[in-house]
Fold:
Amino acid sequence: MRQNEVITGQDFREMFACATAWLEKSAQDIDALNVFPVPDGDTGTNMLLTMHSSMEEAYRAPDNSTSAIAQAIAKGALMGARGNSGVILSQILRGLAQDMTDKETLTGADLADALEEASRMAYKGLSNPVEGTILTVIKDASAAARKLVNEGNTDLTAVMDVAVKSANESVANTPTLLPILKESGVVDAGGQGLYTLLEGALHYLRGEAEQIQFRKPQMVASSIPLTARPPEMIAADEIPFGYCTEFMLKGQKLKADKIRTKLEKKGESLIVVGDDSTVRIHIHTLDPGDVIHYAASLGTMHQVSIRNMDEQHRDFLEMQRDKAPAVDMAIVAVVSGDGLAEVFTSLGVTAIVPGGQTMNPSTKDILRAIESSVSDKVIVLPNNKNIVLTAEQVKSLTNKSVEIVTTETIPQGVAALLAFDFEADLKTNARLMRQAIPAIKTVEITRAVRSTKINGMKIRRKQAIGLLNGELVAVGDSPTSALYDTLEKLDLDIQEIVTIYFGDETEQAEAEQASATIREKYPQLQVEVVKGGQPHYHYIVSVE
Amino acid sequence: MAVKIVTDSLSDLTDDIIGDLDITIVPLTVLFGRETYIDRVTITTEEFYRRLTTQNILPSTTQPTPQAFADVYNKLAEETDEILVITLSSKLSGTYQSAMSAIEMMEKKCRVEVIDSETVAMGLGLVVLAAAREARNGMKLEEITHFVQRSLERVHFIIYFDTLKYLAKGGRIGKAQVMLGSMLSFKPILTVKEGEISPVTRVRSQVAGIEYLFNFVTSFHQIDALAVEHSTQPEIADRLVDRLSVALPGKPIVRSVVSPVLGVHAGPNAIAATVLESN
Structure:
């Protein structure tokens, strides 16, 4: 790695140029990360245009000191800021510049200071800062830089390197902090944009400005699993989003704080940033006239932009539709237990009807799930012998094309679901899913509800019993011993995968122990333990 | 003068075939951090997969530069006046773009057609192979271009991945995005549809995956050409080839290796099958 103790103002400018070029390559990908109804339709493009304005100004700086160039960059950003993310970016750049006043050059320690100031300024611009966004990313990056400098390493490249690494982790973590990101299955777009800029700067410091010409920034992958849900369709009576209103206000002795307080009640996503002569305002409001009227009383308005967000939303939905998988089919499954519901949802089930043993849903419950599905083609997985008939009834009650795949156990339901073919039509899928059922063996461990004698076994009430494919085959004093005995009835030597779903009365540790015991006896088996959370059944196990 | 056929290293064509049919390969680049390797020129597939699985560094890839294509065009232009370039899907790589830009950079006059195959690996390879045969038989550029476009509609590529990890990290996951976030482990079967990675189905084990590939291939009635590839397990691909040659006697099967460039996304233990249907 090239070491850089310190760089000059010219280098500083080239570093930003390199960062901008790097951002340019992924601006479109960043646009695609947008979540509605979160402000800007196109975060990547907006941040890029903001940077372009910064760079134009940077080449007009009065001298080549770091200070002058940083000021010019900040000014350019404020003048050209676009969208929510652009305005926050301008605030970050302003913080950077503020801390570089009177500096000829830039050291690692300077960078750490500047990032801290940038983070502070970014938070300051917002009346209601939200974590899991670009704010968290600048905060984390600056904290990492500070830590390294405090440890005694002030090499500029090294400081930038830790800032980039930390920004990367921070972006990956955004869906954990901001639920809407998790639901939409993306990381934060503004955070990704900032990370890309920092990474571009790092490329410059490493002397890689030439090499990156033929490379492209990577999008940060989320640190938690994301299940993208199909976009919700806009309903006619939905509350409108209003107008995204942006403009620059020029005047004398402007007070950003005062303007912010005044506008706070007039809308959402409010950002007010700037100095006493120039203030940039961004707000989502139902009444832009009111905002404009107020601003006009303070000074002159420039670059006024008022965009109808309902229109933007429609465009966004259309874009989402284009991106969505071509599969137009819904899957309804009857499942009880949080864990199992999550397993089924994560494998593509669009609606869960709660129910199972001793809690059979009604025809109406299943019908409602079918009717509320976005698609007109629906597959139903009853996952219980006693629910199959109820499910069959539904077919005659709806106008939608419905296929009932008669799964009688949870493992059969999972097997059917996995066999779903993303390329095939409804009928073919129903056939493929049915074909997958016989290959699965189901073991269920529960407790006897009364004393009885069955299959030559004497069973006391509340004793643990093991069922294999619905047939009672084992009885034991504990759920695990019943489990082992039931598994003995199967030729496990020729099986491949055992999946253990443990119920709401079973400890995870006990299930892990059972898994270890099985693995020890049959080392060729792949054993997976999943929290099922189902009632009544200590264990539901699939063997395939 | 015979039409010269050019493709990229994602076509997975073996050295024998390349030499035999006079096909020119423009390689992509594989990067491990800042170390760069030319796909299958300065790094062997074995070495690549060894590093992929043993080192804690995620490789990336880059398209060939326009200059790399221009150099090839200039050289071929000395022997022919018609060149046909078939690249991997333009939605997965900028290779197509480089091949197009290079036309402007040519020094010598020569007709160049560039086709975006909208597929990868042997999906591209089998079509290139068929095109090269037609070129050798004297088919002219216009006819071959049509021939290739028709062939691309009849080529079916599917691949078994042992994990979605590499694909998710590489950022080219496309429509297979829907498969992420599962609470249960499974192995994806994927294809390339309209140029993008798309999901086909899920299986729970490699054995089941191979079974799926076998059933997929044997479900076609009219087969022109077949290919089977592996990333790290030649013996498993060989066994599939053995089974297929019994089920489909007399059909030649091209046996190849998933190139490092695709391997970056596929990871170890991947197995692919490709069918080129007859007209």
